[in-house]
Design goal:
single chain, 3-stranded antiparallel β-sheet, 28% helix
């Protein structure tokens, strides 16, 4: 299990996060960033946080889990 991937990404005040399938868009006062997550992970926006979960526990899915979470954290 990914220690990094388990942690939700808190959404700071003043940011708008929009989720469309595998594409997440973060818009703030300085601009807009978007990321298309790989099919090995699913994204959810709930409780003012972004949660990333793997589809299965294959080696690639676990790798994409932590990577996707960190890329989204950097966007926020």
């Amino acid at each position: 299990m990914s220690r990094v991937g388990k942690l939700p990404v808190p959404i700071a005040s003043g940011l708008q996060v929009k989720l469309e399938g595998q594409k997440i868009t973060v818009q703030g006062k300085t601009g807009t960033l978007s990321y298309i997550a790989p099919r090995e992970v699913t994204l959810k926006v709930e409780d003012n946080a972004v949660k990333v979960t793997p589809v299965n526990l294959s080696k690639r899915a676990r790798a994409m889990w932590g990577l996707s979470r960190n890329l989204i954290k950097t966007m926020v």
